[in-house]
């Protein structure tokens, strides 16, 4: 029953996203290579990598109580090694992301699991023959683990290639594929749940105010194992056009945490997010 629920929900969400986004089909105005290089020179060495957030919520597929409700937060940043380009006009970064699952409604407020994800990244911009930005290509060497030992230890390493580009008006997509290695000791069947890649689609509904986002990942299997994670971002501030938002997230599937990656869950959470502006080059210009 749960497998069918994940499968049918995944199809519904994907179909809904396609219908909504197709209604706004249009080519985005790209920035030129000179503008891109100038913006790289102005980037701070230390900045946000992925979203930083604190959200809390309840499950939709089980009884709600202090043992099933929880909180999740993420801290993520990156450091540019040098503003001087590497060969092929690439740039080198180191990144760190930490995601924690906190049972704040239990008596002793224990942390259920903490996942650590450092990486070394190389990024390169792709331009067309008119020197207009078409996409950002990245290659990362990543490690992810929960820092525990014995039977609770979970870890894996991967070489990840990703490409981010504009696909529709006000809509960007990020495509990731990874080559995993050194992961079979304590989680030999991990790829059955995380697969070999994922797709992230983000659509700006109202400029600097409202966004919709969906991430889809399919495990290496012929059943319903995988993930559909949908998010809505809303900026409630009238005069504050910064990257602070209220975020509503629905996570449906497995592998949300490394410790219990085999567990299926459907959980809705709400909270505060400092949204990454890593790919603002693809925002539609006015």
Explain this structure.
The chain has 286 residues and is mainly beta. The protein contains three helices and 13 strands; from the N terminus they run ααββββββββαβββββ. It has helices spanning 2-22, 33-42, 191-194; strands at 46-48, 52-59, 70-80, 90-102, 111-127, 133-145, 155-168, 171-181, 197-206, 210-218, 226-234, 244-253, 265-274. It has a twelve-stranded antiparallel β-barrel with strand order 2-3-4-5-6-7-8-9-10-11-12-13. It is globular. Residues 1-10 and 15-28 have low confidence and may be disordered.
What tags apply to this protein structure?
disordered N terminus, 286 residues, 3 helices, twelve-stranded antiparallel beta barrel, mainly beta
Number of strands: 13
Low-confidence stretches: 1-10, 15-28
Which structural category fits the helices and strands? mainly beta
Query: Overall pLDDT, averaged?
Result: 88
Helix content: 10-25%
The major sheet is characterized as:
12 strands, antiparallel, barrel
State the oligomer.
single chain
Q: Span from first to last CA?
A: 47 Å
| Rough outline | globular
Question: What fraction strand?
Answer: over 45%
> Helix tally?
3
Task: Tell me the strand order in the biggest sheet.
Answer: 2-3-4-5-6-7-8-9-10-11-12-13
Encode the helix/strand succession as letters: HHEEEEEEEEHEEEEE
Alpha-carbon Rg, integer: 19 Å
Organism: Bizionia gelidisalsuginis
Keywords: Calcium, Cell outer membrane, Hydrolase, Lipid degradation, Lipid metabolism, Membrane, Metal-binding, Signal, Transmembrane, Transmembrane beta strand
Enzyme class: hydrolase
Subcellular location: Cell outer membrane
């Amino acid at each position: 029953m749960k497998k069918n629920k994940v499968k049918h929900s995944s199809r519904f969400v994907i179909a809904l996203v396609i219908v909504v986004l197709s209604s706004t089909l249009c080519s985005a105005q790209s920035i030129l290579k000179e503008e891109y290089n100038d913006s790289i020179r102005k980037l701070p060495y230390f900045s946000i990598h992925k979203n930083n957030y604190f959200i809390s919520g309840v499950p939709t597929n089980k009884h709600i109580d202090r043992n099933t409700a929880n909180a999740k937060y993420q801290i993520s940043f990156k450091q540019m090694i040098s503003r001087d380009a590497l060969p092929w006009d690439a740039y080198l970064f180191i990144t760190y992301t930490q995601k924690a699952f906190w049972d704040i409604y239990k008596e002793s407020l224990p942390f259920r699991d903490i996942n650590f994800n450092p990486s070394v990244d190389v990024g390169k911009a792709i331009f067309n023959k008119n020197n207009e930005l078409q996409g950002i290509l990245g290659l990362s060497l990543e490690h992810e683990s929960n820092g525990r030992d014995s039977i609770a230890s979970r870890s894996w390493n991967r070489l990840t290639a990703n490409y981010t580009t504009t696909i529709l008006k006000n809509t960007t997509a990020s495509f990731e594929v990874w080559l995993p290695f050194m992961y079979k000791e304590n989680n030999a069947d991990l790829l059955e749940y995380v697969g070999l890649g994922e797709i992230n689609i983000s659509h700006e509904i109202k400029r600097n105010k409202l966004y919709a986002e969906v991430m889809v990942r399919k495990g290496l299997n012929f059943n319903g194992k995988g993930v559909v994670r949908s998010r809505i971002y809303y900026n409630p501030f009238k005069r504050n056009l910064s990257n602070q938002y209220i975020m509503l997230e629905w996570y449906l599937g497995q592998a949300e945490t490394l410790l219990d990656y085999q567990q299926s869950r459907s959980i809705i959470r709400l909270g505060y997010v400092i949204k990454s502006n890593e790919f603002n080059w693809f925002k539609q210009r006015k």
